[in-house]
Amino acid sequence: MDQKIIRIKDIALKAKVSPGTVDRVIHNRGKVAEKVRIRIQKIIDESNYEPNLMARALGSKKQYRFAALIPDHQVDSYWLAPKTGIEKAAAELKQFGVSVQQFIFNPYDAKDFVRKAEELTAARPEGIFLSPIFYHEVLPFLAQWHDSSVPFVLFNTEISDHGPLSYIGQDSYQSGKLAGKLMHYGQSEPCSILIAHIDEKIDNAAHLLKKEEGLRDYFSQQQDVFGITTIELDSSDPEGFNSRLADAVNGIADLRHIFVTTSKAHLVAAELERRQLGDIRIIGYDLVPANLHYLEKGSIGFLINQNPERQGYLGIRQLADFLVFRKAVSKTKFLPLDIITLENLRYYLEEDVMNVAEKLA
Amino acid sequence: MDQKIIRIKDIALKAKVSPGTVDRVIHNRGKVAEKVRIRIQKIIDESNYEPNLMARALGSKKQYRFAALIPDHQVDSYWLAPKTGIEKAAAELKQFGVSVQQFIFNPYDAKDFVRKAEELTAARPEGIFLSPIFYHEVLPFLAQWHDSSVPFVLFNTEISDHGPLSYIGQDSYQSGKLAGKLMHYGQSEPCSILIAHIDEKIDNAAHLLKKEEGLRDYFSQQQDVFGITTIELDSSDPEGFNSRLADAVNGIADLRHIFVTTSKAHLVAAELERRQLGDIRIIGYDLVPANLHYLEKGSIGFLINQNPERQGYLGIRQLADFLVFRKAVSKTKFLPLDIITLENLRYYLEEDVMNVAEKLA
DNA sequence: AATAAAAGTGTGTGCGTACACACTTTTATA
DNA sequence: TATAAAAGTGTGTACGCACACACTTTTATT
After folding, report:
1. What sequence ranges are listed for the domain HTH lacI-type (chains A, B) (predicted)?
2. For residue B270, is pLDDT > 70?
């Protein structure tokens, strides 16, 4: 059953060397005769030795400074959840010598993003976690961090091929497909569908396009033909927002569903309610309070949850796994696409149970 | 920012005693003058001292033996997931001196359950984790464990008021409601609905009734009137199974949805497929392979996931939190009711990231 | 008042690892 | 071949805590 645990001392005994030498092999500290190194390594492998992380953490006073670059949740409440996740992970990892410094930027201000990214870089953290929502602006930083070998983890918005340690987030394309499925399930005959991108500049937000693509692909695979229209809306101009939305709603024949690709479905719900257009169903993203309000009222049918808190948590964990626990980490981590409706909402609002020592496994 | 970490030694210094005395206060080992005890306790509280769990685990060679009483997954593949979760938790907790012994019983054999429960009791574990699927048979054991102060955690099937440390599982009633919502969403006009309880003795399985109740309540709150019928089926008698199902399907006018309250939706799907009744939609439970097969074919529309692996994981964790880490634990832990459909399935099949050190927080 | 028992307190070692340092052996250089 | 440098190896201490044990002071008993 439970074979006894192997320690460095045991390995040293078997290899007829001192624990110090085994330690050098384990940590590649050099200064070990090749012959001996091989002998020890072999014993390590065969005994499937697993270091005692408790003892390791105790004995090492190394400090790790991580930095997180995230949007201000006071500007957009969506970002509160990742922040919470980051802080949770930070609390857990504190005893392992990890500290996380947050750099908060205004999600509507690219210059602010650049400024904070510069501050972050100047702080010379050992690991970086960020949501690269400004595509063009972030690229030089990624290159710089990559050159100076500072690992960084991206979340929320995927950017390929710039050397991130990993990406944490949802599969946007597939989430669009999922939205399609939900609409289709509730729709016996063909109809028209509206896709609304709200408050994001499309050219800087590839993930919104992927959602759209997923939805369109879903319906193109169906036998029936659905009419699909796309609009972009900007809530900073309420009049324009409402009139453009009204134009779309009035102009599209047999419009039955609206797919909002951002966390702003509540804006659409509010306007439809005002116009008493209750028979148009809405599917949106994210459990922000305003959305929940309309979920409860029934005007939003489903929300797709992107697990934002978990994204924050896992991102920091990913850095720690790599730097502190020296585990291999996965390049991408797609979180489940949770389907949320009134009946199962409450169980997603309770904080999830999460924790540190999977590396013990 | 990061105030320095308080150690026992620091407290001892402040209280002008030795670390040993502080240790006695922390662990109630007695032998401390009341005056001194109060002085030390005050300093502990004020300094919000948090013990270093790494050092604690290192320094203590205490061993904890847990026992898990679960059905045989070779008889019903549903039970593989909790077993996996248990083993994951066990692997993580190994370094904290925890071992978990499994007692496997045949889920269709109450006598076997009793036998294994007796074996378990005889092994005198320090904590017990079980799925009490045989209501009548389990009660005496619960009483016995309660009397001898052995904490036990129930999962999958809720039994109130017999002194469990906690219950881990889904909210059956609410999951029935959720099934109702999903059916209703895909149903523009009133129709008939069939509820099928498969392979469970109803009198011993209150959770199935709760699911039924939830579904019925959902529809009774709607304006339209839906006809709802219930049947019980037993797959060990395939002929009877098929004929009874056929009778129901033929006998109910305008039957459009079947709600299978167990993990056996695939049996219904198979039979409907054989009879080419593709327009009846099925909602069932659990991501067992046979169900996934029909989910992919489209004959099952949605599966509600009860997070069985997580149930196993959290159950063992709950015991550890209570016994090893001496944390307060919640009486009930309802897991999210995940809605699974073809488009988001894959993200629930990937193993979840879980881990040990939330207690560090 | 002498002595035993009990209550209270301090000291020291070990848990498994990291890491600095001292020491020994081999190799390179003159 | 002497000697310095480099390579290789062993020893010891610290990390924060648990816990056994030794020791000191107080209280109870005769």
Report:
1. 6-60
2. yes
Q: Tell me the per-residue pLDDT of A301-313, one tens digit each, with 9 for 90 and over.
A: 999 998 899 999 9
Give the number of other Cβ atoms within 10 Å of residue B270's Cβ: 15
**Positions on chain C within 7 A of a protein C-beta:** 7-12, 14-21
Same domain, B181 and B296: yes
In a domain, A106, yes or no: yes
Q: What is the pLDDT of residues B225-260, one digit of tens each?
A: 899 999 999 998 999 999 999 999 999 989 999 999
Amino acid at site B175: S
- Rounded to the nearest angstrom, the minimum Cα separation between A131 and chain B is 21
- Identify all chain A residues contacting B59, using CB atoms and an 8 Å cutoff: none
- For B128, other C-beta atoms within 10 Å of its C-beta total 26
Q: Is the CB of A17 under 7 A from strand D?
A: yes
- Residue B29's domain is classified under what CATH number? 1.10.260.40
C1' (D15) to CA (A37) span, angstroms: 27
Residues A152 and A187 in one domain: no
CA angle A207, A243, A107 (to 5 degrees): 35
Nearest by Cα to A339 from B176, B347, B81, B170 = B347
Are A83 and A138 in the same domain? yes
pTM of the prediction? 0.85
Tokens of A298: 């029934």
Q: Which nucleotide is nearest to A4 (CA to C1')?
A: C16
Give the domain extent around B213. 172-305+340-360
Residues A236, A91 share a domain = no
d(CA A263, CA A285): 5
Query: Cα separation of A214 and B221, whole Å?
Result: 35
A304 within 8 A of A337, measured Cβ to Cβ: yes
Q: Are residues A183 and A146 in the same domain?
A: no
Spell out which residues of chain B touch residue A341, defining contact as CB-CB under 8 Å: 178, 181-182, 185, 339
Where b means 16+ CB within 10 Å and e means fewer, B311-340 reads bbbbbbbbbbbbbbbeeebeeebbbbbbbb
What's the first-to-final CA gap in chain B, in angstroms? Answer: 16
Bridge partners (DSSP) listed for residue A104: A70
Report the alpha-carbon distance of residue B359 to residue B361 in Å, rounded: 5
| Residues A199 and A326 placed together within one structural domain of the fold | no
Q: Is residue B253 part of a domain?
A: yes
The first and second tokens of residue B114, run together, are 């009793």
pLDDT in tens, B3-27: 678 999 999 999 999 999 999 999 9
| Residues pairing with A232 in the sheet | A197
Residue B3 is assigned to a structural domain of this protein: no
Q: Residue B138: inside a domain, yes or no?
A: yes
Q: Are residues B198 and B214 in the same domain?
A: yes
CB-to-strand C under 7 Å, chain A 47-76: 49, 51-52, 55-56, 58-60, 62
Task: Give the domain CATH number at A118.
Answer: 3.40.50.2300
Cα-based distances in Å from A158 to A41, A207, A221 = 39, 7, 26
Contact B93, B356 (CB under 8 A): yes
How far does the CA of B232 sit from the C1' of C24, in Å?
82
Q: In B, which residues are within 8 Å of A343 by CB distance? A: 174, 177-178, 180-181, 218, 337
Contacts of B327 in chain A (CB under 8 A): none
If asked whether residues A164 and A221 sit together in one domain, one would say no
Please say whether the beta carbons of A175 and A201 come within 8 A.
no
Q: Total domain count for chain A?
A: 3
pLDDT at B354 exceeding the cut of 50: no
Q: Which residue is nearest to nucleotide C6 (CA to C1')?
A: B31
CA distance, residue B42 to nearest chain A CA (Å) = 24
